Structure formats: C-alpha cells, structure tokens
Amino acid sequence: MTDVRAYAAELDAALPDILGAIARVVNIDSGSYHAAGVNATIDVFAAMLLDLGFAVERAPLPDRGDRMTARMTLGNGPRLLVLGHADTVWPAGTVAEWPFARDRDRITGPGVGDMKSAVVTAIFTLGMLLRRGLPGLGSIVFLVVPDEELGSPLSRAWIEEEARNADLCLTLEPARPDGGIVVGRGAVGAAYLRATGVTAHAGVARADGASAIAALAPLVAPIEALTDMEKGDQATVGIFRGGAARQVVPGEAEMHVDLRAPDDASAAAMFAAIERIVAGPPPDPRVTVALSGGFARPAFPTHPGTRALYALAKEFCTTLGAPAPSVVARGGSDGSFAAALGVPTLDGLGPVCHHSCSRREWVEVHSIAERGAVLAGLIAAAASGRIGLEA
Ligand SMILES: [Zn+2]
C-alpha cells in the first residue's frame, strides 16, 4: 500500500539529518572541472549508499570526478535506474564566499538545488523504503554522474548501458519553481566553426592577407535565422572571437553556436542546414572553415510509460497539496539518454528549486519531504506493479 502522507511524515521527521547531509555536500566545491571536489562529494554519497547495503563501484575519468555506480539486487520485478550527478556549475572557491545557509523555508549555496539536495533526499528516501521492504522490485541502480553540467560527454555510454537494462528511470533534476515535473525534453547541441585565413600587416601588406573574421562573420545571420521559436528550433551564437591585433589581418576566428530542437529529426535537419551554410564559398578562397559538434543530448520523447509515471506523481502531489504541472523542457539532462532509448523516464523529481544555476538559487525546505515522498511513492508503485511501464 502506497501512502505518500506517511512517507512525507517520516521524511519530515528526518529533516534535520537530511539538511545536515545537504549542508555537508553543498559546502564541498564540486564544479565539473574540479575533479577532487567532485570526488569528495561522491565520497559522501557513496558512504551513505554503502550504509544502505548498496554495492558501490567507482570508475575514474581523466581530469574529472569518478563515475559512481551503486547497485542492489532485490528479487524479481522492475529494474529501477536512478540518475543523479555530483558536479555543479560553480568553480573552486565558490563555497568560501557562498556557503550553505538556511533562512526559514529557504536553503541556499552552490548546487543546493541542482542537485545536491535531490541526491541526498533520494538516498534518505531509498533508506526509508528499504527499511520497509521493497519485495516487488527487481533491482536498483543509482548512478552519480561527475560531468553532467558539461553535457555528460564521458558518461553517456555508461548511462546508456545501464538504461538498456532498466525498466524505468527516475531522474533527480530539481522540480520547477511552480512544482513542475519534467515529462519530456528537447535535443541540445552545439556547432563549433573555426576559420583559418592568412595573416598579414593590415597596412603595408593587406592584399597578402585573407581574413578569417571576414569569412566567419557573414555566417552568423543565416545560422541564427534557423531559429523558429514557435517550432522550438533555436540557434544562438554564444561566442564569436578572432584576430590577434588591430593592425593584423586575422588568421583565426571561431564561433560557438548553442542549438536546441524539439525532436531528433529537427535536430538532424538543423545541423544539416548549418553544414550547407558552412559549405558555401568563403569570400576569399584562401580561408577554410571547419565545422564540428552535433547534438550531444538527444530528445527525451514522452512515452506512454512516462505518462503513466507522471500521472502517478501528479496524484501523489495532489494528495500532499502540492502543484505538479507537467513540463517539456528545452534543456537536456541525463534522463534524456534513457528516454531516447525508450525507457519510461520521469525527471524533475528533486525538491523544488528557484533560479537554478544562478547565484540566487534556492530550494523550498518544505518540498524536501514532499518530493522525497513522491519519489518513494513512485518506487513503491513500481515495486507493487501499479504502473504500466510499456515504453
Ligand atoms: Zn542538474
């Protein structure tokens, strides 16, 4: 029997301990590029999961934190994949000037919402469920990703391998400020254009030079014109730079383009359009333009199994008096990898977070027990066979 009110009450009683653990990990700098800090954060999560009886493996990555896999085999039944990450967008040194703090219903600090409070809450939630018993569940695999905020380039294959062996995936990105839970995501990509020309003195030898900037600049407008906000296609030049000195014809220029698309077909069409734009003749034949990149995050389609998970999450939120609109997000997450493989996936299951990834980021303290109870309800429902998990 799934009683989310009982789960919420139990987690609420454990709130001082949960907040203590959140404070501990928020006060560790763990920007994606700070491998030692990411690993120190993973040390805390790993110890908590070991305490619950999980088998924990860690695989080191060059210049990044470890990939952490916590595994527990329970019996026959659905195989659950839980996706969390230990990295944040904040560089080393951030904690010293912006440590964890609580002010009534608000907690703040680097990565508090995205997603340290979510991983801690999920671990306490699993502990509560395991004490009660989860006889109908096959297994739990809990991944803590070290490079999520970079788009998980070194974790994608590992996540996909685990997703192929899962019947459902619950992803711990924060709930939206309005309580929203994520049922779908668009594809996210990048295009990198690098132009190489010929340097020459801009005064006495201008004709000897071939400008890389002059070749690249005319491509900005046609690439940005691929944007169709209504459809969900977005191409945004986020970085444009080139040249070395005012009086030198620039030999190098580059631009980085952020790409968003509503589905994988639109993503492929958008990248093909950029390839055609880049293939056009440069104003000076001595300049070459190279294109790289692609859509690193596939689209997260809303499967029937995802709808079934959402319907249940919504029911639990309603029981707890919390709003939970469904959201199709523009940004990607690790849940996208599982959903793209056809695994019923629900995301946005962390506590409610405001101004995610900004210095104003804060989490609603009362939502910790509430969202933990929703997560518990979903896992218990999967264990009791209450969810139709067909992809
Ligand atoms: Zn995140």
Question: What are the main properties of this structure?
Answer:
391 residues; alpha/beta; Aminopeptidase; Alpha-Beta Plaits; 2 domains; six-stranded mixed β-sheet; five-stranded mixed β-sheet; 12 helices; elongated; binds zinc ion
Kindly describe this structure.
36% of the residues lie in helices and 26% in strands. The protein has 391 residues and is of the alpha/beta class. The protein folds into two domains: 4-186 and 300-383, 3-Layer(aba) Sandwich (Aminopeptidase), CATH 3.40.630.10; 187-297, Alpha-Beta Plaits. The protein has a six-stranded mixed sheet, sandwiched between helices. A five-stranded mixed sheet has the order 4-5-17-16-8. A four-stranded antiparallel sheet has the order 11-12-10-13. The protein binds zinc ion. Zinc ion is lined by residues 85, 114-115, 148, 173.
How would you write the strand order of the largest sheet?
1-2-6-3-7-15
Query: What best-fitting shape do the alpha-carbon axes yield?
Result: elongated
How much helicity do the residues have?
A: 25-40%
CATH top level of the largest domain is Alpha Beta
Total count of helical runs of at least 4 residues:
12
What is the H/E string?
Answer: HHHEEEHEEHEHEEEEHHEEHEHEHEEEH
Count of structural domains:
2
Structural class: alpha/beta
Instruction: Name the hetero compounds present.
Output: zinc ion
Q: What name goes with the CATH superfamily of the largest domain?
A: Zn peptidases
Mean pLDDT: 96
- CATH fold-level topology of the largest domain: Aminopeptidase
Strand content: 25-35%
The counted number of beta strands is: 17
Architecture of the largest domain, according to CATH? 3-Layer(aba) Sandwich
Q: What is the CA–CA distance across the termini?
A: 25 Å
Low-confidence stretches: none
